[in-house]
Amino acid sequence: ETGVTQSPTHLIKTRGQQVTLRCSSQSGHNTVSWYQQALGQGPQFIFQYYREEENGRGNFPPRFSGLQFPNYSSELNVNALELDDSALYLCASSLTSRSGHNEQFFGPGTRLTVL
Amino acid sequence: AQSVAQPEDQVNVAEGNPLTVKCTYSVSGNPYLFWYVQYPNRGLQFLLKYITGDNLVKGSYGFEAEFNKSQTSFHLKKPSALVSDSALYFCAAHNYGQNFVFGPGTRLSVLP
């Protein structure tokens, strides 16, 4: 186990709704990254948060937004859900240091189904 | 654009035989390279990483990977496969100040 937890495990929503996914990072880590993994594909980077600020973003529209809290936990919010948003959402925590090497530890994921 | 390729969607190997899962990357500079494994309905589990130094990296569960800079490859290997190794394997690359880029994954099936 990595010590990274995500909630909920599964979620079913309908098109147009909004969803919030949560992630608790591993103790001692200051950085959280979010990924979308569609069925049969590799994880696609959504964005990363470091010290409560967005620190990099992938090719995802603004309706994907996030937060990082002082305890380094994080939320991923998706507005106006679309059918293609159905995927496994993975959170990864890491420790960003001067060396720049930030090995990531993944949570079990939240499976989102949009009907 | 930076990318990671895993040319095989599926690799089948008999239990006890050696296995290789291939990975090539197109990332600027000197990236860090990783292998992760994913079991059904689970998140990604770290196997091993290459940062610098010896081109042969040893990781968890008897896995190892060979870094080849001239071929921009980082193939995952194991001398003797187990049925329990059957899973989805992802190669990833990361440069300082940049984001992780994952390959599409290779499904490994180890047949008893």
Question: Please, could you describe this protein's structure?
Answer:
The complex is a heterodimer of chains A (115) and B (112). Chain A is an all-beta fold and 115 residues long. Chain A has strands at residues 5-7, 10-13, 19-24, 31-37, 44-50, 53-57, 64-68, 74-78, 87-94, 105-106, 110-114. Chain A is built from no helices and eleven strands. Chain A is globular and about 45 Å long. Chain B is mainly beta and 112 residues long. Chain B is built from no helices and twelve strands. Chain B has strands at 3-5, 10-14, 19-21, 24-26, 32-38, 44-50, 56-58, 64-68, 73-78, 87-94, 101-102, 106-111. In chain B, the strands form three sheets. In chain B, strands 2, 5, 6, 10, 11 and 12 form a six-stranded mixed sheet that branches. In chain B, strands 3-9-8-7 form a four-stranded antiparallel sheet, with no helix packed on it. A two-stranded antiparallel ribbon of chain B has the order 1-4. The chains are: A mainly beta (115), B mainly beta (112). Chains A and B meet through strand 5 and strand 10 of A and strand 5, strand 6 and strand 11 of B.
